[in-house]
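Sequence in, structure out.
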Amino acid sequence: MYFETQKLSVGYHRRPLIEDIDIGIWQGGILCLIGPNGSGKSTILRSITRHLTKLGGVVAIGGRDLDGMSDKELARHVSVVLTDRIEPELMTCWEVVAAGRYPYTNHFGKLSREDQRIVEDSMARVNALELREQRAEMAEASERKRQSILRVEREWIMRGCKARTTKSKERIQRYEALLNQEAPETDEAVQMAAASSRLGKKIIELRDVSKAFDGRPIVSRFSYNLLRGDRIGIVGRNGAGKSTLLHLMAGELAPDSGTVEVGATVKIGHFSQEGRELDLNQRVYDFIHDIADEVRTDEGTFSANQMMERFLFPGDLQSVPIGRLSGGERRRLYLLSVLMEAPNVLLLDEPTNDLDVTTLSILEDYLLGFPGPILAVSHDRFFLDKLAESIFEVRGDGEIHRFTGNWTDWQAKRRAEEALSPKAEKPKPAAERPRERKLKFTFKEQREFETIDADLAELEAQITACQTEQESCGSDYVKLQELQARQAELEAALEEKTERWVYLNELKEQIDAQNG
C-alpha cells in the first residue's frame, strides 16, 4: 500500500468531524471523496497535508509516517490544490493535468519525454470530457433555440404563407426539417414528486390592477388570469416592482385600484426574499414538525424527517438549534418549510440565492414535477431557461410586457424588437407632412438574405463531417479534442447564423406586407 491512513480523526477546535477512518491507495491509484457541503472532504485533505492539525491517527506514504517528515520533504511526496488556496510550489503533474494547462513550465520541463507525453495525453482526455459537457450544454441551448424558431415559423405557417416563391418553399422545407429533428438525448434524473393540494378551475385573476409608491407607478392597469400549467419567469431591473407583483398576487399587498381574486381551493406557497421569522433557539426538527408531520406526493407519503433528509438535513442536523445553521442552510430550511405546506401555487422570489449546487438541483427537480402554476422572480438566467415557458418583464414605469418562451427567447425577441424599431425622427414644422418610414433591406442585408440558406446548409454539412471524423478517432484523444473544439465553434456559428435567418425572414415578410 503506497498511501494509507489508520484511524484518522479530523475536525476543528478538538471537535471531531470524522473519526477513525482508514484509507488505502496503491501507487498510481485514484480515490474520490464525495459528500455534501460541510461533511469534511476538504478537512481530510488539509489534515493529511498538515494545513490542519489532525485530531488523531496516522498518515503514511511508502510506510513512512508523514509526521516524521519535514515540510520540504512532505512537499515532495504530497501536494494539495484547494478551492480557496492554490500553492504553486506544491503543484504536481496530476494537478497540471487537472488544470488543463502548464502553469509552471519549469517543473513540467524536468520530466522525461515519455512522462511529458503521458501528461499531454491525460490532459487531452480531461479536456475531451470537459468538451463533451460543453457540447451537452450547447445541445440543450440549440434545442431551446429550435423550439423558439418553430414557434415563430408555426405562426407564419398558420397566417397562411405563400409557397409559390422559392424563398417561401425553402422556408417551409427548413420548418419541416426543424420539426422532424430529434431532440438531444438527456440523462435520466431522479426527480422528487411535488406535494400539493387539490386545485380548482379558478386560481388567481388580476383585473386592471394598479399600484404606486410615493406617486411612482409600479403596476398600471395589469390584468392576467393565472392558469394551471403556467411557468412564468418575472424579470426586470432592481426596484422595478417584481416583488411587488408577487405580493399583490399573494394578497399580502392591497392594490390601489383593480381587483385580485383568489380561488377557493388555492393554497399559495410564497418564498419571499424577506423570509419568515425564525426562532434561533428552536430545533430544526421542531420547526418543520410544527408545519406538518407528513406530506403526500405521487411517490407516496413522506414523513417530515424524510423530507428533511431529502433537503440535506440528516438526523444529526435535525436536532441542532436553527441558530447554529449557516446562512445557506437557513435559506434551504425556509424553502423546505414553504414546500411542506403542500401549496398548489408557488410564488418564488429569487429562490436560487444562497443555494448550493446540490440544493439547487433538488429544487429544480421538485419544480419540474410540480402540478400547479409557478411564478418565479429571478436574475438567474440558467434557472429561468430551465423553468420558464413565458416571461413577464416589469419595466418600472407601470408597464408589464409578456413574452412567450424562456429567458433566452425573451432576450432574442427584445433584440429583434430593438433592431426593427425605427429611430426617433427629428420634429418637423407643422406645415410639412411627415414622411412614413418604409422598411427595406440594406445592400448588405439583401446580399446576406440571398446567400444565408446556402451558408446554413454549408455549416450543417461541416458539423456532420466533423462528427463523422470524431467517430474514427479511436483512442487519439488529442485529435478528438481538436475536433470537438472545432465542432463547438461550428455549432456556435450555426446558432448565430440561424438567429440572423429568423430576423431576415421576419423583416422580409414585413417588407412584403408593406408593399402590398
